[in-house]
Amino acid sequence: MFTLTEAQARLRDTARELAQEAAAQAAETDRSLQYPWPMVRRMTEAKFMGLTIPREWGGQGGSYLDAVLVVEEMAKACAVCGRIAVEANMGAVGAVMAYGTIEQKRIAAELVLAGDKPAICITEPEAGSAAGEMTTTAVRKGDKWIINGVKHWITGGGVSRLHLIFARAIEDGVDQGIGGFLVVRNGENDPAQLVVKRRIPSMGLCGMPEAELHFVELEVPDRMVLRAPGGFKRGFGKLMDAYNGQRVGAATAALGIAAGAYDRALAFVQQRRQFGRPIAEFQGLGWMLADMSIKLEASRALIWQAAASAGPNGFPDRLMAARAKVLAADSAVEVTNAALQLWGAAGYSRENPMERAVRDARMFPIAGGTAQILRNQVAEQLLGRKLPQTRDGMLKLAMDEAT
Ligand code: FAD
Predict the structure, then answer these.
(1) What is the pLDDT of residue 242?
(2) Which CATH number do you get for residue 336?
(3) Whole-structure pTM over 0.95, yes or no?
(4) Under 8 Å CB-to-CB from 329, ≥6 apart: which residues?
(5) Over 60: is that where the pLDDT of 173 sits?
(6) Which domain holds residue 277?
(7) What local confidence, expressed as pLDDT, does residue 313 receive?
(8) Per-residue pLDDT tens for 27-44?
(9) How far is CA 142 from the centre of its chain?
């Protein structure tokens, strides 16, 4: 059972207040497909961008739990704003603050504190859940790395400035493993080498661009390689640990969307009358509301537990983050659907936020580790053994066990 500190309760109240402004523009953001720059400016003024950046770098030194409180309130009102709050506090920025050099931390902090939502570039057309099969390469040439490859479904492509690009590091013709490379768009790198090829039309979160990025002989100075402990061979795993933070954030955005839909449904059923009585009096609907509230409370409990598992400069626990993301993402799909149902035809109208909530929630069991892949991760940790997904990986394991 968590009790918020006074400072955390104040932070949540401040987020709740700003969320009213976010709510006022959410439908237009969805309709216009425009990134909500005015809200980003307001979130920057409220110091919600880079809240988790340590004070020595100009941030608030906030915890993951602090960030989670902000993300939920923003996502209740505007899912896109919630996601911006996630990526301005977790994921790429968390990885740089944990493993970056002084110069890298300075660059990331300056950008994020000024309102940038960094982009994290992992997924490729032929390497989705099997991220380790990526083919984007970074070939070392003296003190530079030359990146070539294609990434897709990159959130913020075209609006983000800081990019954390994952690529196979090749030195002297030898594949060293997967590394992280920092590139600032419209910064010191020629933007012509980082091509925002196209925006991918998406079902929900329509104000947030999802893009296909092409890297064409993109030069990255060696000092912009994000080196996690263990070098390229083991560093990918460490860099992916930063993703545990992002997962907790994504789980929270899903929770916020669902909680917003639930609140509106709870109010609606008490005011809507059929058969001469408020529809809230029908037991079938009461049970739906009960189930919705149980899913939301359970999601929030796992999210807060996962967020609180992060130590100073550390990331949330992998198992807790995976459990929280699975539950919150699946629940968000169920709860938003139920909320729409409670509104009847009005819920199905595009004049009503219910249908937007259903579309917005649907991404969460897919992005940032699908519901299936995260269940694999949970199972691995429960069983205390690797569960290779490739055919030869499983075969090798079986042969190792037989000898
Ligand atoms: P696939 O891997 O092709 O999977 C297809 C289906 O098969 C899924 O249901 C999956 O769960 C299942 N499956 C695959 N392998 C297994 C297995 N071993 N066991 C059980 N089931 C399996 N990527 C980024 O790098 N950066 C981003 O910013 C980013 N943002 C995104 C935003 C959105 C809105 C979306 C939808 C995606 C985003 N992604 C991003 C990509 C996302 O991480 C991938 O979509 C995800 O990893 C799954 O890859 P895939 O879509 O290629 O599906």
Answers:
(1) 84
(2) 1.20.140.10
(3) yes
(4) 250, 251, 254, 361, 364, 365, 371
(5) yes
(6) 240-383
(7) 56
(8) 999 999 999 999 999 999
(9) 35
Length of the chain: 403
- The DSSP-derived string for 63-103 is -HHHHHHHHHHHHHH-HHHHHHHHHTTSTHHHHHHHH--HH
Which residues, in sequence order, are CB contacts of 85 under 8 Å at separation 6+? Answer: 43, 48, 49, 67, 70, 71, 74, 75, 249, 253
Residue 230 has pLDDT above 90, yes or no: no
Planar angle of CA 313, 317, 320, nearest 5 degrees: 145
- Domain CATH code at residue 91: 1.10.540.10
Residue 394 lies inside a defined structural domain of this protein: no
What SS3 class is residue 39?
A: helix
Flag whether pLDDT at 312 surpasses 80. Answer: no
Judge if 59 and 106 occupy the same domain.
yes
Residues whose beta carbon lies within 6 Å of some atom of ligand 1: 120-123, 128-129, 153-155, 202, 210, 363, 366-368, 370, 372-373, 376, 389
> How many angstroms separate the CA atoms of 310 and 65, rounded?
9
* pLDDT higher than 70, residue 187: no
Ligand 1 atom with least separation from CA of 204: 34
Expressed in angstroms and rounded, the spacing between residue 366 Cα and the centre of ligand 1 is 5
Structure confidence at residue 190 as a pLDDT band (50, 70, 90)? low
Q: How many DSSP H helices and E strands does the chain contain?
A: 13, 10
Using CA positions, which residue lies closest to atom 21 of ligand 1? 372
CATH code for the domain in which residue 184 is found: 2.40.110.10
103 Cα: distance to centroid of ligand 1 (angstroms): 32
Q: Count of domains in the chain?
A: 3
Average pLDDT of the residues of the chain:
95
- In this prediction, residue 217 has a pLDDT band, given cuts at 50, 70 and 90, of very high
